[in-house]
Design brief:
Two copies of one chain form a homodimer.
Chain A (H helix, E strand, L loop, with lengths): L5 H14 L4 H8 L3 H8 L7 H10 L3 E5 L16 H10 L2
Helix pairs in contact in A: 2-3, 2-4
The first copy, chain A, binds a DNA duplex (30 and 30 nucleotides) through helix 3.
DNA sequence: CAGACTTGTCATCGTTCGGCGACATCAGCT
DNA sequence: AGCTGATGTCGCCGAACGATGACAAGTCTG
């Protein structure tokens, strides 16, 4: 899940918190912030402390990865992997 | 590159900025912040505005991905792909 | 080495953040 | 419908953020 803006972040945090069936207060207690701060984060406020944001993501069991999108995408295996043994057996039967 | 703390972020931003051969002032101008703010970010300050941090990462051509580490890692191909034609030719020569 | 450029540090100012308390509103259950 | 718990909103206060200017220190090049 990509986060381009604080609004993206806010939506993500709310979704995750609900997925974990947690209240704003419980999350706030875990992170060590006020419930109102969680409300602001979920509302997509851009002026929040980045350190607290990172702690909150961590409290939700999420990781933050920063990467360069210009790097080539990893090659993805086809849905049905080729059965190498089958191919080799066929060649052995009929080279 | 995972970022767990603002200090991680700061190191990453500095590394990337230097990789792009940019000065702090140039980056600051691009993002619309003061140079001193960039200094603080690179120093790993935790109390900076998250919106500005996200904008800075974007200005450096970086993306932010938030994910659940419990999800299975994607299958990655080995560094040297198997040359199927070679394998098949070998079997044809010596089944 | 000197000079130019870059980065680090400090202090000040106006604005606003985060915590708090309080209340309003919404959501779910019986 | 009433009740309970969860969430949204508002205002106030002290702390500190971000911009600015200035200077110190570090780095690089000819």
């Amino acid at each position: 899940m990509y986060a381009r803006t604080p609004a993206d972040l806010g939506r993500l945090v709310r979704w995750r918190r609900r997925a974990l069936a947690r209240t704003q207060q419980a999350l706030a207690d875990q992170v060590g912030v006020s419930r109102q701060w969680i409300v602001r984060l979920e509302a997509g406020r851009s002026t929040l402390e980045v350190g607290l944001v990172m702690r909150t993501l961590r409290a939700l069991g999420l990781t933050i990865e920063i990467s360069d999108p210009a790097e080539p995408a990893p090659v993805v295996l086809p849905h049905r992997p080729i059965d190498l043994d089958e191919v080799l057996a066929a060649v052995r039967r009929n080279p």
